[in-house]
Amino acid sequence: MTIRVMIVDDQMMVREGFSVLLNAMPDIEVVGEAVNGREAVLKAAELRPDVVLMDIRMPELNGIEATREIVAADSGSKVLVLTTFDLDEYVYQALRAGASGFLLKDASARQLADGVRVVAAGEALLAPTVTRRLITEFSKLSTVPRVASVSRVGELTERETEVLVLIAQGLSNMEIASHLVVAESTIKTHVSRVLVKLGLRDRTQAAVFAYEARLVTPG
């Protein structure tokens, strides 16, 4: 199936560049573009793309608020944040707003396409070496509200807690299954139970929660 993508950036060269790279992929189609967050929200509702490539700093409505509105609309569109810096407070806020991950703007064509595919498949794009530092750094800020009450950690079984920690470390279901020597289907069940018990939307929020609950420390 073709993955339908919308590109949101206030710079025309960025939009055109990403559009050319993605349209060259046999399984990806760019179905729309937006120049600011407000237009992104409107077009996402109209086009219902599988993945929205979202810049953060834009006029009228920034990428964080646009992400929050798109995710709240529950249209099924996943948001992949584009950023220039890997340690960016705004990226952290976007992840908390519901983005499924982020990519640096200097990513290669292969990284860009792979990122779109990962997010479209419902996985979180959580590169352990980058996202772990970012989430850890900004989860220390006392002014940032928690994704969910950390007291709910006690509702998890020992195995579910172990799975949550591995999610936060950036492991896929297959990698977690290999690490724990169980079937991948078993891990999918654990992940679903973790999300339900903690009242979280997806793996990205689960990773943020794990850091905020101090289940994972900088490594």
TrEMBL record:
<dbReference type="InterPro" id="IPR011006">
    <property type="entry name" value="CheY-like_superfamily"/>
</dbReference>
<dbReference type="GO" id="GO:0003677">
    <property type="term" value="F:DNA binding"/>
</dbReference>
<protein>
    <submittedName>
        <fullName>DNA-binding response regulator</fullName>
    </submittedName>
</protein>
<keyword id="KW-0597">Phosphoprotein</keyword>
<dbReference type="InterPro" id="IPR039420">
    <property type="entry name" value="WalR-like"/>
</dbReference>
<keyword id="KW-0804">Transcription</keyword>
<dbReference type="InterPro" id="IPR058245">
    <property type="entry name" value="NreC/VraR/RcsB-like_REC"/>
</dbReference>
<keyword id="KW-0238">DNA-binding</keyword>
<keyword id="KW-0805">Transcription regulation</keyword>
<dbReference type="InterPro" id="IPR016032">
    <property type="entry name" value="Sig_transdc_resp-reg_C-effctor"/>
</dbReference>
<feature type="domain" description="HTH luxR-type">
    <location>
        <begin position="149"/>
        <end position="214"/>
    </location>
</feature>
<dbReference type="GO" id="GO:0006355">
    <property type="term" value="P:regulation of DNA-templated transcription"/>
</dbReference>
<dbReference type="Pfam" id="PF00196">
    <property type="entry name" value="GerE"/>
</dbReference>
<dbReference type="InterPro" id="IPR000792">
    <property type="entry name" value="Tscrpt_reg_LuxR_C"/>
</dbReference>
<dbReference type="InterPro" id="IPR001789">
    <property type="entry name" value="Sig_transdc_resp-reg_receiver"/>
</dbReference>
<dbReference type="Pfam" id="PF00072">
    <property type="entry name" value="Response_reg"/>
</dbReference>
<feature type="domain" description="Response regulatory">
    <location>
        <begin position="4"/>
        <end position="120"/>
    </location>
</feature>
<dbReference type="GO" id="GO:0000160">
    <property type="term" value="P:phosphorelay signal transduction system"/>
</dbReference>
<feature type="modified residue" description="4-aspartylphosphate">
    <location>
        <position position="55"/>
    </location>
</feature>
